[in-house]
Structures are given as C-alpha cells and as structure tokens.
Amino acid sequence: MHKLLVLYPKPADPDHFRDYYVTNHLPLVRKWPGLLAWRYSFDVAATTGESPYFAVFEGDFADAAAFAAAQASPQARRLAADVANYATGGAVVIHYPVQDGTG
C-alpha cells in the first residue's frame, strides 16, 4: 500500500474551501486512476494546542508504481491545478509506503 497525505493550513475563507472542495475538487479526485480508497476531514485537531491544519486528505494506492502512474496522469495535473481555487493557505503534500503493524 502507498499513501498520499495532503494537509491544508487554514484558508482565508473556510466556508469557500469547504464548499468548493466538496462540490468541485472531490469529483475530480473520484476520477483519479489507480486510487483505491480516499478519505478527508475538515475536523483536524491536535492532541495538544491548536492544529496548524484545517483539513486533511488521505488517498490509498496499491504500491509506489501505481502512485507514480497516477501522478503522471492528466487527471493528476488537473487536480494539482485546481488546488489554487480553494486552498489559499497552501497545501503540504507527502506520500509514503505503508507498513503493516500488529499490536
């Protein structure tokens, strides 16, 4: 499994962010090739103090190769270009392989 994580700092207009994200951006996400599952939240909290993030997105891909192919797609370019339409606070984008663990 390979995960994409997008962390969004607080935008200038939180209501616009929420509306645009759900109405316009997520429909683009649904068309992203290779995306197995995805989740998002506007209720980001820190365990102590105030969270530096307003929203978070998680996307799951089968492996690093599937993620690389998805990133090379025209859909990925559309997604990246769309971020400026709602994320006035910018976005921190990271990706990584996920290791299974047991407790």
Automatic annotation (TrEMBL):
Domain EthD: 11-88
Name of the molecule in the record: EthD family reductase
NCBIfam families: EthD family reductase
Domain of life from the UniProt record: Bacteria
InterPro entries xrefs: Dimeric_a/b-barrel (IPR011008), EthD_dom (IPR009799)
Membrane-crossing residue ranges in chain numbering: none
Molecular-function GO term, any one: oxidoreductase activity
